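Aim 2 progress update. The chain analyzed this quarter is reproduced below.
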Amino acid sequence: MTHTSERSLTTYLTGFVLAVILTAIPFALVWGELLTGPAVYAVIAVAAVLQVLVHLVFFLHLDLKHTPGENLFFVGFAAVLIFIMVGGSLWIMMDLHHRMM
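Predicted structure tokens:
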């Protein structure tokens, strides 16, 4: 194995372990009923954001130093679109919940 493939394998394995941990934490909190209400939602949201960052850094190899600016622009644009879609969906569901009560 060359130095590049070893670094790549190490990078992928580190990303995989972090992704598994960030997936297991919310599952353990919900399954074990360790947190309830808004606290568990906050932990799930933080774990989800960290999960996205782990995937971008370890699997897609995006970083601020070596990634072309246009790639970062498109990632930012996608993040804004996802934020609008998720935020809009939550807004609609909360409004419908409020109206149905």
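The two ends are 63 Å apart (CA to CA). Helices lie at 3-31, 38-59, 69-100. These observations will guide the mutagenesis experiments scheduled for the next reporting period.
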